[in-house]
Amino acid sequence: MSPVQIELRDTPFDSFQELFEYRTTFSKNGDHGACSTFVGTMREYNGGDRVFAMQLEHYPGMTEKQLEEIVGEARKTHEILDGLLLHRIGNVRPGEDIVLIAIWATHRKDAFAACREIMEALKSKAPFWKKETLAKGDRWVENNTPGE
Amino acid sequence: MTIYVRFFASLREQTGIDSKTVDADGLHSIRDLWSAVTDEPLDETTLVAVNKTYAGPDHAITDGDEVAFFPPITGG
């Protein structure tokens, strides 16, 4: 069974509150020596335009499957003791968190690398689509910005 | 042979199709299926999934498949 809990949420979440709560769910037996986290938050401006809201569409069933596979791939090359992956769906407003990835490992090398690899793979393989609400109407986001 | 076809995001708006069941007798590939459901050209950036797994445009379709077409993804 995967040690990484994966969830899609249709309501706002506070990533740091989620981390605080998740950390109480696993035993601290002395192995957890490192935790790396990434939090992605919706910005109020994109491409010079003010963005009032965003609709995050996904492909039910496939999105979850892809996220499981992405985590599975990371586990082939990195030791992951525990992890949490949350991603918003539905209506999102500026300032709200879109994605949280937290990876616990024995050492920082695996924690840093797995967190980053999962995030970059999510950006290119997990079927989510953003539609922004601007003053002049709605606009689909066409591409993600490169991570490196 | 019947195929359940789905479109997501901007492709759903472009084609005007959310989902439909297609009688696909005589069709062989994803590319054939696309041409049977829309007059739009199949853009090379369009992503395809068969039964919720990524596939290429020349992938062979089989009875009962769920085939989804969608634009480049923009999550995270």
TrEMBL record, chain A:
InterPro entries in UniProt: MoaE_sf, Mopterin_biosynth_MoaE
Pfam families: MoaE
One GO biological process term: Mo-molybdopterin cofactor biosynthetic process
Entries under PANTHER family matching the protein: MOLYBDOPTERIN SYNTHASE RELATED
Name used for this protein in its record: Molybdopterin synthase catalytic subunit
